[in-house]
What we know:
Elements: H1 3-14, H2 24-35, H3 43-46, E1 50-52, E2 59-70, E3 76-86, E4 90-92, H4 94-105, E5 108-109, H5 111-126, E6 130-139, H6 140-143, E7 154-161, H7 167-177
Parallel strand pairs: 2-5
Antiparallel strand pairs: 1-4, 2-3, 3-6, 6-7
Bound molecules: zinc ion.
Zinc ion (ZN) binds near residues 70, 73, 75, 139 and 141.
Amino acid sequence: xxxxxxxxxxxxxxxxxxxxxxxxxxxxxxxxxxxxxxxxxxxxxxxxxxxxxxxxxxxxxxxxxxxxxxxxxxxxxxxxxxxxxxxxxxxxxxxxxxxxxxxxxxxxxxxxxxxxxxxxxxxxxxxxxxxxxxxxxxxxxxxxxxxxxxxxxxxxxxxxxxxxxxxxxxxxxxxxxxx
Length: 179
Ligand SMILES: [Zn+2]
């Protein structure tokens, strides 16, 4: 059974008399195709356009918007990601950092794993001296159901390499990316 047929069944359980919903299962299935398109992409295989550079200070792309879905409730996670790294002879186009974020956002996610996956991909693609990632997001499973805490931000960070144990570098990244 495909997603479309399952959605049709869910609609029938919610409202057996539902009218005018014939196209809804198709629309939901096509939304799911988009939400979960990240499984078809592996940034480590797809992103290979690196450039030589003598840049040796931290490079940061901050406030990259993302939308994902939590794997516990299949409800939206909406927020921003900031990605920083200290090059080790190679740099990458800024748009590629955003592409890495989208690859992992378009999967069923836990924010903690998402944060580590983005950092891990930047690390393995660029082999930089260090990587820093900070994610701030609102989870609809917290804001729209259960405890219903609107506006609560969930913040996760992950550091690799020289940034991990260097509190000056951590502070440099976090001061730049602070809300
Ligand atoms: Zn959830």
